[in-house]
Amino acid sequence: MGGESCGTTRLAAAPGKKLPVCAPPPASAASVPSNYKLRSQGSVAGSASWPQEVVPSVGRGLWLSLEGGDPQRLTSPHPRCATDHNSDNTTAMLQEWLGAVGKDYHSVVWKVQEEPSSYPDELGPKHWSDKRYENLMRLKQEALVYAREQRADYILFVDTDSILTNNQTLKFLMAQNKSVVAPMLDSQTFYSNFWCGITPQGYYRRTADYFPTKNRQRVGCFSVPMVYATFLIDLRKETARLAFYPPHPNYTWAFDDIIVFAYSCQAAGAEVHVCNQERFGYINVPLKAHQTLEDDHANFVHLMLEAMVDGPPMQRSSHISLLPKPLTKMGFDEIFLINLVRRPDRRQRMLASLRELEIAPRVVDAVDGSTLNSSDIKVLGVDLLPGYYDPFSGRTLTKGEVGCFLSHYNIWKEVRVSQGLERSVVFEDDVRFEAAFPARLRRLMEELEGAQQDWDLIYLGRKQVNAEDEVPVKGVRNLVVAGYSYWTLAYAISHRGAQKLLAAEPLSKMLPVDEFLPIMYDKHPNEDYKRHFAPRDLLVFSAHPLLVYPTHYAGDSNWLSDTETSTIWDDDAKKTDWTGSQKTLRDSRGGAGHLRSTARDEL
């Protein structure tokens, strides 16, 4: 992994460097020789009047973006690809892809430089040295000159850390009739591919417009001082003075390709726009200079998982060969995934997410509370804990909560009776994974074992109810003694922990499962509830920071709850909804949100 091609992935000085995207490929290296060019007759995308456009893609470490998308879906007549300084299989992927789709383009220009695999002044594959910046600017300038020589109408620059999922992006950008225009790209954080402000010295300037634009609270095409990663230049307009290299004679700002180009646009009087009316795709958050290609891979996987939260999985190109990912249980004996059969969309998203994380789950069909009538519940031996009422709405238990409790209860029973299930993980189906989830969980468990710390249950995701600090576990980073918490989103459970939970005989005195657990580790604030259960000696800890969060919260457009939106457990006619409950709301203290707002994230 690593190398230069059409884009970049960037580092500190300027926000978000990029690795341009060229084509999503691995393929028969022998099928595409160096300096490969192709011309074909006929229309592109079924339209004989398609404008002449060049799509340059400079790629180092390009294989990641090729896994996540296919530039061919944009339908353009002039792809131009360059790759260099690679230490991964970028070249092979591009060759395979070009061998498969080159015939569909008017012409293809292919440049490859396999050696050297690094720059003499770089600290590592994610370090943006001056020589790397210069090489990238030269390649982009070469592509721009080529487009002008070909009398192209447009040139679309797509860096390889950009994944375009909207196949109408190119047509949309052309229709805006702008000199330089970019589609706003989403990411795992508040990072995107534009700046709303720039200082007289060429540095990033925070403005009041950035977050409303990034969050689509204001929608449209907006004039901005800088776009990068993916943008279209209309070569029919007054853009002849635009250049990537060499920098403008009066240029004194940082030696950085996106800042050099922003200055060029400013000096040429070319207005720059970013558009956010649609969801066009995603951009990977840039890494720091010391980080590795493995870190880059984990970052990209996280981007793919985030894309699946509100949309379909990224579609890999059908023109590249990828080996199936090896799936593991991360050192646990079993990975349980609880899902209602009538929620196939959640099942598919979770299975796709776990597959990207290389985790092998076992799907457990959840008990559907909506199918239980009052008689069914009595037959199961379920009875309400005397005096239980929801602390916010005043209602009693819902059938959805009964189904949720029984789903977890059935897993605890299996853990207790099965041989060899000493350590297991339980996921519900609305999990949003934090970056590098498997590696972080493995490290946590290794340190826990090294510290010889006994445990029964570890929250991987939860809502901390009280604001007080929780005691860190000595010898184990990122682990605290859990206080009163909501949610059973994801947790690790030991064989002994399952035994303790079942020994409490909770079905005959049921309350929501996320209220039951704090009782069992003696952190529930209601003394009346606690006196029904003894002993309360469950050893419970929590990852800190958390490793997972919910995909959605109450009030979000795609929020859905089968526990809060239900009927009362012993009354088939009395319906409930979430409006009285605070459990499903985003944590007002900021501890239950997956995004972290920092200045760097903006860049």
UniProtKB/TrEMBL annotation:
<dbReference type="InterPro" id="IPR050757">
    <property type="entry name" value="Collagen_mod_GT25"/>
</dbReference>
<dbReference type="InterPro" id="IPR002654">
    <property type="entry name" value="Glyco_trans_25"/>
</dbReference>
<feature type="region of interest" description="Disordered">
    <location>
        <begin position="578"/>
        <end position="603"/>
    </location>
</feature>
<dbReference type="Pfam" id="PF01755">
    <property type="entry name" value="Glyco_transf_25"/>
</dbReference>
<protein>
    <submittedName>
        <fullName>Cerebral endothelial cell adhesion molecule</fullName>
    </submittedName>
</protein>
<dbReference type="InterPro" id="IPR029044">
    <property type="entry name" value="Nucleotide-diphossugar_trans"/>
</dbReference>
<feature type="domain" description="Glycosyl transferase family 25">
    <location>
        <begin position="333"/>
        <end position="516"/>
    </location>
</feature>
<comment type="similarity">
    <text>Belongs to the glycosyltransferase 25 family.</text>
</comment>
